[in-house]
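Reading a protein record of the kind used here takes only a little practice. These numbers are not coordinates but entries in a learned vocabulary of local backbone shapes. Here is one such record, which you should read through line by line.
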Amino acid sequence: MTVTLKVYIRSDEQYNIWEDIQIAELARQLNISRGSVYKWKWQDKIPAERVVQVEAITGIKREELRPDLF
């Protein structure tokens, strides 16, 4: 089963940061558990300490991933 991670960047719009990458693949690249990444999905928020790493993996600017921080 493929699960996509979505991050809300506007109150009425979702930005799908994953098109083909599975949560398991992101977890592997970050060297963390899949459960941690699922938690981000459920909370609709990437932790501040992981934003730069996710930006490097996905190519999506940190300002889009966490506009409340950058």
